[in-house]
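Exercise 3.2. Students should predict the tertiary structure of the chain below and write it as structure tokens, then compare their answer with the key that follows.

Predict this chain's 3D structure.
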Amino acid sequence: MSVIPAAVSGDGDVSGAIGKLSSAADRSAKTGQSLATQGADLLGPIQEYLKAVTGGDRQALMQATMPERRRVIDQYATAKKAIAEFTPRGGGQAGAMAQLQGQQAGDLAETTATARQKGITTAGTLGGQLTTLGLSADALASGDLNSIINALTKQDETKSDKWAAIGQGLGTMAGYYFGRGA
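Answer key:
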């Protein structure tokens, strides 16, 4: 089967080419819609996370970073348990616990700050990419419409050319007919 539309191959079957173009555009649109839906499903939670860490709501930021903060809290809880269990009681143990508390607070603050910074960077990149993809989809749709309009215009030109040829032929026949009878 030839991939060259009939209108290009010289068969003059513009209707067939329009039908093939419409079918291809429909398939592309369905595939695009399916992929867009799958992408939106995957991006939904990511977008919510990015909104939480980049927004100004401290409670949303804390909730979004809870898994990372929970890991830090668990690590320090294990360290505190080890200090309490294996460090001799007295000033050394109290100092180690105080130092550990300070480190934990710093690590928790760094976890949320890092998540926010990375979230802003990622959100900016993702936003730009989504905008570009949206514009590309609009351009493809416009290109498909333009191709269909061009094919329809070509079809109309072909019909006009056929009618012009018929009119010319009738005019030539009438000239011969009336030229003999006169």
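Discussion points: Residues 48-150 form one domain. Residues 83 and 93 are 7 Å apart (CA to CA).
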